């Protein structure tokens, strides 16, 4: 059975404290995803219908989180670190403006010469970059004149804002804020014989371009920015090692290309099976929306995303999910034991544990004082297939804990917490 993508509805607020409806989604502030907005509004602490949904400086203490975003990654990292998380940043792709790319100037000249009937604007960031590049090349006035005569359709509110800021007017917005729904709108009104210019957002969906061409349209594409390989591939290697070694609690994605790039890098480095297995189990993937989730879903990985496809909502979802599912609290004879991510606190004294020690301690905590058989512990601990290896693993756990006697031995049976 194929996995289901887990969708976690959470409140989402903008910087003015008002709820945002899904119809307000736009695609400019993310790493190129058609529906999934990278927007940190609402992650600094707001009140919605009487409940605080924002900032808690300690809620991610003990958790280690991977970040794959390039553009605006600083916003996401800051939001996580303010909550106490340790962040491993490894952009799997890099966005490069194409303003110095001769192909962009050639495409601009082609648009001017063709005088398209329709212009599809996918991102505000892309349109602004295109108009600036045209100005720098001396083509700005001619381009604006041609575009002012075209029927302009936009993918979302921010793209609409950029169109109007450029002195142009749009004729409508897509229903779903995807390239597919934008082209659906064109095809619904007939495209045969029309010239359609499309401002791409860095990730070319050839299937959608083919749909237009098959309907009889002439298609011109303009790419104001490009996806390229990361400038520091060694950071991607460290991220893959951390996922495969299960030393991360979560990994975040803000675009489908970033997710695809991570999987491709895992294949190239012969870590694919380990990475996929980890993300199906201990390393939870969080994404901004279903489009970003699709590459992960295709290889059997569930991804968690919020009801509203924004970065702020993803951060809130991540916090709530990890606190609910990855924090354990057990009263013991030595004080309250709290396990958070890769850390454990006993009577307020917090220590960082290895992935092996965390796995063992979680199993003991779940048993709440009952004996955990040796065979059961060996199932979750790598390289502990015999009693001696298990004893070594438990000894290391005890050594790392503030109180060694927290883990008690039950002779010939196994181990338990001293609750």
Automatic annotation (TrEMBL):
Keywords: DNA-binding. Residues 1-12 have a biased composition (Low complexity). SMART domains: Trans_reg_C (SM00862). InterPro entries: 4pyrrol_syn_uPrphyn_synt_sf (IPR036108), 4pyrrol_synth_uPrphyn_synth (IPR003754), OmpR/PhoB-type_DNA-bd (IPR001867), Sig_transdc_resp-reg_C-effctor (IPR016032), UROS/Hem4 (IPR039793), WH-like_DNA-bd_sf (IPR036388). Residues 325-419 bind DNA. PANTHER family: BLR5956 PROTEIN (PTHR40082:SF1). This is Uroporphyrinogen III synthase HEM4. It comes from Nakamurella multipartita (strain ATCC 700099 / DSM 44233 / CIP 104796 / JCM 9543 / NBRC 105858 / Y-104) (Microsphaera multipartita).
């Amino acid at each position: 059975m194929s996995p289901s993508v887990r969708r976690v509805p959470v409140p989402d607020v903008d910087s003015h404290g008002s709820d945002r409806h899904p119809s307000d989604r736009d695609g400019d502030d993310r790493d190129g995803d058609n529906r999934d907005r990278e927007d940190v509004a609402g992650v600094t602490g707001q009140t919605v219908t009487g409940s605080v949904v924002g900032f808690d400086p300690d809620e991610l203490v003990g958790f280690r989180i991977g970040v794959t975003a390039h553009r605006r990654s600083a916003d996401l990292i800051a939001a996580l670190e303010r909550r106490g998380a340790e962040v491993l940043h490894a952009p799997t792709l890099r966005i490069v403006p194409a303003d110095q790319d001769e192909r962009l100037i050639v495409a601009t000249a082609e648009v001017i010469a063709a005088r398209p009937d329709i212009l599809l604007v996918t991102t505000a960031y892309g349109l602004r970059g295109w108009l600036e590049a045209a100005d720098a090349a001396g083509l700005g006035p001619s381009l604006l004149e041609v575009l002012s005569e075209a029927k302009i359709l936009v993918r979302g509110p921010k793209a609409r804002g950029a169109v109007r800021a450029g002195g142009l007017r749009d004729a409508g917005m897509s229903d779903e804020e995807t390239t597919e729904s934008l082209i659906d709108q064109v095809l619904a009104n007939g495209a045969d014989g029309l010239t359609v210019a499309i401002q791409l957002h860095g990730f070319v969906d050839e299937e959608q371009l083919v749909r237009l061409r098959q309907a009889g349209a002439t298609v011109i594409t303009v790419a104001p920015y490009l996806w390229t390989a990361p400038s520091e591939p060694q950071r991607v290697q460290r991220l893959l090692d951390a996922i495969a070694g299960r030393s991360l609690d979560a990994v975040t994605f803000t675009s489908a290309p970033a997710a695809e790039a991570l999987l491709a890098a895992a294949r190239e480095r012969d870590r694919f099976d380990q990475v996929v297995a980890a993300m199906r189990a201990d390393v939870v993937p969080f994404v901004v929306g279903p489009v970003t989730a699709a590459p992960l879903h295709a290889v059997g990985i569930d991804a968690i995303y919020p009801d509203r496809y924004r970065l702020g909502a993803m951060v809130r979802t991540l916090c709530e999910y990890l606190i609910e599912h990855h924090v354990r609290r057990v009263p013991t004879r030595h004080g309250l034991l709290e396990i958070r991510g890769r850390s454990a606190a006993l009577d307020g004294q917090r220590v960082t544990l290895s992935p092996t020690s965390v796995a063992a301690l979680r199993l003991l905590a779940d048993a709440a004082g009952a004996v955990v058989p040796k065979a059961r512990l060996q199932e979750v601990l790598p390289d502990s297939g015999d009693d001696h290896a298990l004893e070594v693993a438990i000894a290391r756990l005890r050594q790392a804990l503030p109180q060694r006697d927290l883990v008690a031995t039950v002779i010939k049976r196994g181990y338990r917490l001293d609750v």
